[in-house]
Every structure is written in structure tokens, then in C-alpha cells.
Amino acid sequence: MQIIESPETYDVIVVGSGAGGGMASKILAESGLNVAVVEAGPMFDPTNDDQRTQLRWPWESPRRGAGTVRTFGDFDSAYGGWEIEGEPYTRKDGTEFDWFRSRMLGGRTNHWGRISLRFGPRDFKRKDTDGLGSNWPIGYEDVAPYYDKVDKLIGIFGTKENFPNEPNGYFLPPPKPRLHELYYIDAARKAKIPAIPSRLSILTKKINNERGVCFYCRQCSRACMVHADFSAGTCLIFPTQKAGKSLKVFTNAMVREVITNDEGKATGVSYINKDDRREYSIRGKIVVLAASACSTARILLNSKTSQFSNGMGNGSGLVGKYLHDSTGASRAAMVPAMFNRKMYNEDGVGGMHVYTPWWLDNNKLDFPRGYHMEIWGGMGMPSYGFGFNVSDLNEQFGGTVGGYGTKLREDVKKYYGAIVGISGRGESVPQLDNYCEIDPELVDEYGIPVLRFHYKWTEYERAQAKHMHNTFEQIFEAMGAQPLGEKPGKDQDHGLLAPGRIIHEVGTTRMGDDPAKSVVNKFQQLHEVDNVFVVDGGPFVSQADKNPTWTILALAWRTSDYIIDQLNKQNI
After folding, report:
1. Cα–Cα distance between 349 and 215 in angstroms, integer?
2. Residue 436, Cβ neighbours under 10 Å: how many?
3. What is the CB neighbour count within 10 angstroms for residue 513?
């Protein structure tokens, strides 16, 4: 097949436009470098009325907002999901791993929960605490200055709590708790469990002239047309282009591989244009991979040459290895004290106003790593299938089963807004045997070999999920709430969701000082190819009991500063 070469050579090619790619492209372009961003999906701008889903009425969708073509419903802004037509992946040995991909400018940052937590000092050195896994080659002190920069650039609300492993940041005022969250706070305190304002990257106060302030429509998953919440496109890429920096975006460009010369240096990337199905190449002096942990591993493993027979940067054999996702389990309950509650607008931000950070000592428990708890519930705009079966609730709470007309409306109003849900999100221990690799037989519709996954939870994660559910019930009891459904038992892995379902997968290009035991160094630079860097979640040595996005952003900024420094010193 003829590869159509671009006439221009860029200083930097960034593959992927999500958190890491967006941050790297901004910092590098602002330094004066000529940057090309290669994105596998289309352009996306929530201010474009053809793409806008925010403030759409339920009847503007075929099924009142329920999913027809999008995993999280028709009004969710994500273009993609766990299954994408023409882009398969496979599993082996009983694996249940589900791989979420978001094909659009800004990637997953268009629809995520905006939970923006720093890793703490202990999170970078977990082996020192429990003897499991590996320590990062860097510590909190290395990343803290970049967390500070990200806080100030993007904006995050929260409060300073002075917890030892839940670092403070530069916070905007948090929104007030909603009614169901007030019930949670009271119950958690009775159970001696902390409940504090959540930390979300949503503007509750103006920070610049480019972005608006949250107007509390509770629709952050639809992407914000006033750019009050963080998305890589609206907050990083668009402002950089508007400022006149040299930043060109190639959309609908599915990268096949990194191209190298006879010396093994990267010289660019090749991609399939989804519009005409032809293969193109872009030349670049430096390649920054930010396609997501698994997509970056796929690109590296498919980048085979005489120098890299097992894939680029894979001399250690660890590209794709140590894949791990956050654990996840949830439970919901009805609060009788909130039955027949007064109806009013309590929308707030599109996420939790309150959460619980990890508060216990794992040395006293039967699992080694912790979890945080996310709170949900209350009222929101009803849509198709908006949350409960009235007959089932009447049966549980002593009402009349069945009904229609006025009786049905009264029952719906009785229960509406009286639900409280708790979701645990925890840290798993990275395992060498959890990995992705290239399937030896299958290609996607663009002719690119696809990934095959091998992943199984350990007893550590199952014990953690069991503890989550015991804690949920402890809080529900203190709240006077009645749990819905049965608590999952051992036969259901204690409600532990399949790996990949929390969409926090990291670790496939792990960071380390020893090239024999890692893929990139402490600046996320390939040990084997010094002009290739990885700035997504791939380099994570461990996940922590926090969401990874804020750390991806901070490390991408740190890596970008390193690239600029090395270029100035003519080292790359």
C-alpha cells in the first residue's frame, strides 16, 4: 500500500488529544515548537450546535435520552464506548476486561466525572508500606509543583483538609451539599467515616476571560458549552490555537505505528485516514504518545522493525504488562425520611458535591490498598428509565402494588429524589500477568492488528469490594435508609465490576530507572528511543485510590518541560 507522506516536518507529533495529549500539545506549542496533534476521532466543540447535547430536552432524543448509539445515553458527549463497530478487541483465558475508547477531540475528558484528586506521598511508594508491587522512581515532591500548576491553570473546587495522603491544592469554593448529600454527611459522621467536599475540575468562580462559570445544570457529561468544566479540547487545545501558537490537529486519523530510521530514531507516525481509508505519514522530530494506556501499548507493539522485533521500546518485554484498573462496586438505598419530599431545583454540578477519601489503616485489614467513596442520588431531570420501578418499591415499603393515573403519579412523586447511592473506587495491586498484547490473527477495519487482553482480579480486590459493601450498609443504617436489592456475595465477587468498567486503566508502559524492568524513565521517555515519550496513564507504576486524570495532566506538563529543556541542551 502506498503511504502518502506529509510535506511538512513538525517539531513534535502528539498522538491523542485527551488529558495527557492536550496538556503536552499546549505546553510544547506555547514554547514555540511546531506541534501536530493526531486524533483518532472527529473534531468536537460543545459550542457547535450540531454537536451540543447540553440543555437538550428529553424528547429531542429517539428514546428520551436513553442510549441508542452512545453507551452512556444519547445526551452523553462521548463518541465511543466499550464496543465500537469495526474496532474489535479480544480476550483470553476467561478474561472479562472491557476496554472503553472515546474517539473525539479531547477524548474521555469530554464526559468524565471531573473528579480531580492528587496522588499523595504514600501513593508513589506503596511497596514501602505493604511490600507489594513496585515504588515509583519519583515521589510526591517531584510532581507537587505540577499539581499546583494544573490547579491554577484549569481550576478545581474543594477544601483544605490536611489529610496526610490527600494533599491540599489551590481550591475554588465548593458547591453546597444537596439534600441526599446532607443525609450522607450526617450518617458518615455517625459511623466515624470522613465526609468532605469533593474535588472536581469545574469552575465555581471565574479564573480567566476564556471560560465561563458553572451555572449548575448538572449536565457535565454532556460537555459544557461555556467551558466551565475541564475538557482537553476546550481548556487546552482551543485556547492555544486561539493564542496563535503553531498547533495543527489531524482528526479521524487512526495511528498504525511509529516510524523509525535506520538508527532506530523515531521520524514520525503513520495513520489511516478514516474518511478516505488511505494511509498517510507525518514526519516529526519528537513523538509524544498519549493515545490512552492500552492504545499507546498497541501502537508500540505494532511498531516492529529490524531494531524492534517485539515492538518499539519493548526490549524489557513489558509493553502492555502490568495493566490495571480501579476497582468498583456500588449500592443504592431509599431514605424514607425523604419520601414525598418538596420538589425544587437542586441540580448542582454534574457530579458529587461530597465524597469520602480513604480513612483506614490497611495493616489492620485483609486487603492491602484503599478506596474512596463517591456519593450520588437526589433529583434530576427525569428521562426514559430514570431510576426505579414503583411496584417493586411499593412492595418493599408497604404500598399498593400496581396502579395507574393519579395513583401512579403520586407513587412516583413519593419516591422521586429519595435515593442515595454510594460507589467505591479502589486501588488494585498491579500484576505482571494482567496485560494486553497483539492478537496474532485479528485486525480492525483499518487493517491494524488489534489488542488481546488477559486480566483477572486477585483476592485482594475481592476482599476490598466486600469491605466496600459492608461500609455502604453501615452508612445506610446510620442514615435510616433501606438498601435496594441483596448485598452481593462471594459468588458474585462481592459486586466487583469487571476490570475496565471504571475506565481508569493504567500501567502498560510502566516507569522505572532500570530499562530491564520498565519501559520509560522518570520523565516518561522510552529507554530505547530517546525521542519518543508517553504521557497518558501507561507509565503509572500504581494507580492509588484516586482517579488518574490529575496525575496524567501533571506528569504530561513535567514531561513537556523536560522535552523543552533537552531540546535547548541539544540532547534530543
Report:
1. 8
2. 29
3. 11
* C-alpha dihedral sign at 499, 500, 504, 508: positive
Q: Which helix (H) or strand (E) holds 354?
A: strand 354-356
- pLDDT value, residue 386: 58
- The C-alpha cell 491523542 sits at 16
Q: What is the DSSP string of 236-278?
A: IIHHHHHTT--EEEE-SEEEEEEEE-TTS-EEEEEEEETTT--
Q: Is 141 helix (H, G, I), strand (E, B) or coil?
A: helix
Whole-angstrom CA distances from 1 to 4, 235, 278, 488, 534 are 10, 38, 9, 53, 28
CA distance 175 to 216: 9
Cα(153)–Cα(156) distance, integer angstroms: 9
Report the amino acid identity of residue 400: T
Q: What is the pLDDT of residues 369-387, one digit of tens each?
A: 999 999 999 988 776 655 6
Per-residue pLDDT of 182-240, as tens digits, reads 999 999 999 999 999 999 999 999 999 999 999 999 999 999 999 999 999 999 999 99
Question: Percent helix, strand and coil across the chain, each rounded to 5?
Answer: 25, 20, 50
Q: How many residues comprise the chain?
A: 572
Produce one character per residue of 23-46: b if its CB has 16 or more CB atoms within 10 Å, e if not: bbbbbbbbbebbbbbbbbbeebbb
- Distance from C-alpha of 448 to C-alpha of 251, rounded to nearest angstrom: 18
